[in-house]
Amino acid sequence: MTTAHQRLAERSTQPRRVTWRDLDADPVLLTALVDAYRTVFGGAEWREWSRCTHPDCLRQYSKDESLQLAVCACGRAGTLVPFHPEHEVIRRLRRHLADPVQSACYLWADRPDSVGAFCWGYRTSVSELAEEFATDDDSAADISAHIAEHLGRHPGDAAPDPARTRVCRFAEGGVTLPLRNTGLTWAMFDRLLAWADETRTSAVVARTSGRSPMYRICGERLGMRIVYHYRHAADDRVILAGTAAEMRRRLESRPTR
Q1: CA separation for the pair 179, 12 (Å, rounded)
Q2: In angstroms, rounded to a whole number, what is the distance separating the alpha carbons of residues 217 and 209?
Q3: pLDDT (tens digit per residue) in 44-54
Q4: What's the rounded Cα separation, in Å, for the pair 22 and 61?
């Protein structure tokens, strides 16, 4: 990271909270957030800039790789499509942030048309979250039972009622490459966890790939535990859960960088 970028990050105050109404009323900021989202996940770590739609291939590529390709490496023409189309990112934002009381989105932006970091989540019941996480191979009832079992206060306690128990879903988060290693990753996490604390939502749940950088951040560094493995052999996603208070304690003990 350049010295200029480092100074820029250091003089930043707290990340800014926005609602879906704010984003919908500010097309420039919404576009900047979508661009940041696609850029972060289109990097070398996730390689989610483009993908092949042919069922026998399904390769995915980073932005840099995509710029070098005329067709997919499988040789089939017309099969490459954006991994995260703009309209799909906007649809996800609208759905996740629909209720401004039950959701929170934080941005770090050095100017109105450039978002350097983002993080958002929402409060929901265990049952509703399990419905969203379910697949053909993974039933909502099974996922719900695994999450609820983890939320028992002590080993052997009865699992809480999934329909009544509220959790905070950590939905998305990322920091653009020039601003990494500045402390922004932890600042964004801390703001969302503080919001969970403020709304008395102690449990935080996330879903990610076991190969992704987010898995290392949530699991290895913030102490979230795996509560569910997806069953299909080709699906390496896991569901993690932790408590906001414990995760914030881990953040407080970390270096500022």
Answers
A1: 12
A2: 12
A3: 999 999 999 99
A4: 32
